[in-house]
Write a structure and sequence with these properties.
Blueprint lengths: L15 H4 L13 H24 L1 H8 L7 H31 L1 H20 L4 H4 L1 H32 L5 H29 L2 H6 L4 H6 L2 H10 L14 H19 L1 H11 L2 H7 L5 H4 L1 H23 L4 H24 L3 H16 L2 H11 L2 H21 L1 H12 L4 H18 L8
């Protein structure tokens, strides 16, 4: 891989070590793009599967581990535990992102898989409240915290590697696989959930069936470790007295803040439309679980396809910012009518079609936006920067979204509650993006 094939920072200077970073992967020649994408994206998809399948089974988990007399009480406690995993994301983003900038992307990505496995084990083997009391609830909590810490560092390391490894050409398409892999996660989780709800009686689901998706998620251990062990490193650590995270906050704090706000619309769409919609369809629209989980399949496929299209567009457009802003404007205007329609005319085909529309409208601009942020960050702080931007944004606006919307639904009984939250997040993202100046690393 030639030096011209990797990004040079458009902000600030590059140290001599940074200038030689491209040679980290040169020893064995240019690594296969297929292997690179598989290693970064398949591992991320499997990790996101573990992290998000909890959302699809939140009603059942709430009943088994967080009993309550209130109809919404168990669900509130379950989604609060789902959200608590996000609290660890910023810490994981800081520690693992810093590690990725110091020791390399490959080492960090191997670490995240091990941590995710530990978290999944805690959830898969947690005894229910009826037999173990609060101990089972605490095991669920511990598993969520470990999963959150792991994912906090996964995104920055893997996305940075996808950007750096193949040169400028096709950079947007490679990065788009990070988001596309999350669509695969949603699809896998929804298919698993739908199959279990359709095949097993309620008693079997409650006694052992709900554990199967988490046991399936343990496949990340052999698969993820194997494919990532054969990656070539893309980043040689720079010699600096201060840590990467310190330099990031000192020199690029404004960009980090704008990046956090810019991610809010995509985050809200992901966690409300892709992952919370099955719960919304069951609780608010009173649809059967097996049918409601189809929404996860449809939005997962939509997210996968639209992300790859967006990556190709990001590579071909001379300016990406208009596409990002246009997608946000459309989603802010459309989300209200979408939820009004599905709450007043609750048919499965309509819900699926409009959920796909919202997913597509936001995510056509998400990959170009992340590529803009990646190119604005120097290589020596890139993994830390993306980890902090993504994990903090997801923690504040994603991890809390299901709890806030569930609380609003319980208090107001207004089926448009998700739309109000998503509109607010969209406006925040729009304001942040308008203040960003697009720069391209060469």
């Amino acid at each position: 891989m030639s030096e011209a094939a990797l990004p040079a920072s458009p902000i600030g200077g590059s140290s001599p070590a940074a200038a030689h970073a491209p040679h980290a992967a040169q020893g064995k020649g240019k690594q296969s793009q297929f292997r690179l994408i598989a290693a970064c994206s398949l591992g991320n998809a499997l990790e996101m599967y573990d992290f998000t399948v909890y959302s699809f089974f939140s009603l059942l988990i709430g009943k088994l581990f967080f009993p309550s007399d209130s109809p919404y009480g168990s669900l509130l406690l379950a989604v609060a535990t789902f959200g608590i995993g996000f609290v660890m994301r910023p810490l994981g983003g800081v520690i693992i992102g810093n590690y990725a900038d110091r020791k390399g992307r490959k080492a960090a990505m191997t670490l995240t898989i091990g941590l995710m496995v530990l978290g999944t084990l805690c959830i898969a083997f947690a005894p229910p409240y009826a037999s173990a009391g609060v101990f089972g609830s605490l095991m669920i909590l511990a598993g969520r915290l470990l999963q959150g810490f792991s994912l906090g560092g996964e995104v920055g390391a893997a996305t940075s590697m996808l950007m750096e490894a193949g040169g400028v050409k096709g950079r947007g398409f490679r990065v788009s696989w990070q988001l596309a892999s999350q669509g695969v996660s949603a699809l896998l989780g929804a298919l698993t959930g739908a199959a279990l709800y359709a095949a097993l009686p309620q008693a079997s689901l409650e006694s052992w069936g709900w554990r199967l998706p988490f046991l399936l998620g343990l496949l990340i251990a052999p698969v993820g470790l194997y494919i990532r062990a054969h990656l070539e490193e893309t980043h040689v650590a720079e010699s600096h007295e201060s840590s990467p995270i310190g330099r990031l906050l000192r020199n690029h704090g404004g960009l980090v803040l704008k990046g956090i706000l810019a991610t809010t619309a995509g985050t809200a769409t992901m966690y409300l439309v892709v992952f919370f919609m099955p719960t919304y369809m069951i609780r608010v629209l009173h649809m059967p679980p097996s049918l409601s989980l189809l929404s996860g399949c449809v939005t997962g496929i939509t997210l996968f396809a639209v992300s790859l299209v967006a990556g190709r567009l990001a590579d071909r457009l001379p300016n990406r910012k208009p596409l990002v802003i246009g997608s946000l404007l459309f989603s802010v205007v459309a989300v209200g009518p979408v939820f009004w329609l599905i709450s007043h005319y609750p048919s499965v085909p309509l819900v699926l079609a409009l959920s796909a529309l919202l997913t597509a409208s936001v995510n056509i601009g998400t990959t170009p936006m992340f590529l803009m942020l990646l190119e604005m960050l120097p290589a020596g702080v890139r993994a830390s920067g993306i980890s902090v931007i993504y994990s903090v944004g997801v923690t504040i606006f994603g991890g809390s979204s299901q709890f806030i919307v569930t609380w609003l639904l319980a208090k107001t009984d207004n089926p448009l509650s998700p739309a109000f939250y998503m509109m607010a997040c969209g406006l925040l993202s729009l304001g942040a993006l308008l203040s960003l100046r697009e720069r391209k690393a060469g």
